[in-house]
Design goal:
Radius of gyration: 21 Å
Distance between the termini: 35 Å
Number of strands: 28
Strand order of the largest sheet: 1-2-27-26-25-23-24
Helix content: under 10%
Shape: globular
């Protein structure tokens, strides 16, 4: 790994650690079951499970039928789709292991994806089929039809591309029930679906309010609109779901900045950053004071670390894997795509350190020789799980 620094405080690292989980050097399927099971019992991380399952079919069978308990669940960054082989795969970057994994995900082929902290990604295809996919177990099932969404016909008749129909999707676990929430359509409406309950999306009535983010905090749902106003979303209301206004945008911030809600260490946070800054991306973080119904500047994240991409934000304890009091961010590739050649370096993500307000960016060297020319890539963080 090479690195450089400048007086501006920007540090840049470049690396290319590629692990292709399809590579099989010998016929490992001939190993006795007891030996394979012994190997399986030594695994502790999701990345190890992914590599183990890709060795051969017999190992995959053991992997899918074992009750795994990872000792540490850390985020991976799902980057893009790889078309260099017959099997459609996605690139997953492990920041703490400095490796890139190619994981076969045929069910995500040609789809737009949103990550989550529960192992599931939300996908949508060109026919607006919305699905949930577990990237590790490969379990996939369809969510309710887009035809059940309120005002969806009007949106589709406005020549909105399928890729832009759903602006954001999130998976929450509320009182042990998985709930998928989406922001969709030209009016940026909010709808949700409790898994295995009903066959339709349930709309959240909110005339003339355009939502941009949603988060689960303390088994409650909070939503942010374009102007920065915060709402409580009561999805368990005895009648129709409803929203309750809580607070306006902090006075020292602008509504055009990119904004994210995040649950971190028992606090509801609001993150701001300028999406048009190329390198020196800086963040400002606020916590919500529920007594005064106001946002308060947060100077430190403590032992927590935030993960932010264009569609979501979440928090974990740093542990030994990540730098505490930092924000790991991922960015789209549009600027690099416009000037791309066969080989190029894309600053796909970075780390903002709250303590000294410095930004560290990472380069991913990717070759597209012989592949279908890639289009827009929007990386998304997820925490893989096996169920």
């Amino acid at each position: 790994m090479s690195s450089s620094s400048s007086a501006s405080g920007r540090r840049c690292h470049g690396f290319q650690y590629v692990t292709d989980v399809h590579m099989t050097m010998v016929d490992w399927s001939q190993l006795p079951y007891d030996i394979v099971a012994l190997i399986a019992n030594k695994l502790h991380t999701i990345e190890d499970f992914i590599s183990f399952s890709a060795v051969c079919r017999s190992w995959q069978f053991i992997y899918r039928n074992k009750d795994w308990t990872p000792t540490r669940r850390v985020p991976l960054l799902m980057v893009d789709e790889n078309h260099s082989s017959d099997v459609c795969a996605r690139r997953f970057i492990s920041m703490w292991k400095n490796k890139v994994y190619k994981l076969p995900l045929p069910m995500a082929h040609g789809r737009r994806c949103w990550g989550s902290t529960h192992g599931w990604i939300v996908t949508v295809d060109q026919n607006l089929v919305i699905s949930l996919l577990n990237t590790v177990s490969q379990v996939c099932f369809d969510l309710p039809s887009h035809s059940t969404l309120e005002n969806q016909v009007q949106s589709l008749q406005s020549n909105i591309d399928w890729f832009s129909f759903i602006h954001k999707a999130a998976v929450f676990k509320i009182r042990d029930v998985f709930v998928t929430m989406i922001i969709y359509g030209q009016d940026y409406r909010l709808a949700f679906h409790r898994h295995h309950e009903g066959s339709a999306w349930l709309p959240v009535p909110a005339n003339y309010i355009r939502f941009i983010d949603v988060v689960c905090f303390g088994n409650q749902v909070f939503a942010l609109c374009m102007t920065g106003r915060l709402f409580l979303v009561e999805i368990d209301s005895p009648h129709l779901p409803r929203i309750i206004f809580l607070s306006s945008l902090p006075l020292d911030q602008n509504s055009w900045q990119q904004k994210h809600l995040v649950h971190s260490s028992g606090q509801l946070l609001l993150i701001f950053h300028d999406p048009y800054q190329s390198y020196m991306i800086k963040f400002k973080v606020y916590r919500f004071d529920f007594e005064s119904k106001a946002w308060v500047v947060l100077q430190s994240l403590g032992e927590s670390v935030l993960f932010v991409d264009d569609s979501q934000a979440f928090s974990i304890l740093a542990g030994d894997d990540f730098k505490s009091n930092s924000i790991y961010f991922a960015v789209e590739n549009l600027r690099w795509l416009l000037g791309m050649e066969e080989n190029y370096e894309w600053e796909y993500c970075g780390v903002y350190h709250m303590e000294d307000e410095t930004t560290e960016t990472f380069l991913l060297k990717m070759s597209y020789v012989g592949e279908v020319f890639p289009h827009y890539i929007s990386p998304t963080w997820l925490i893989p799980t096996l169920s």
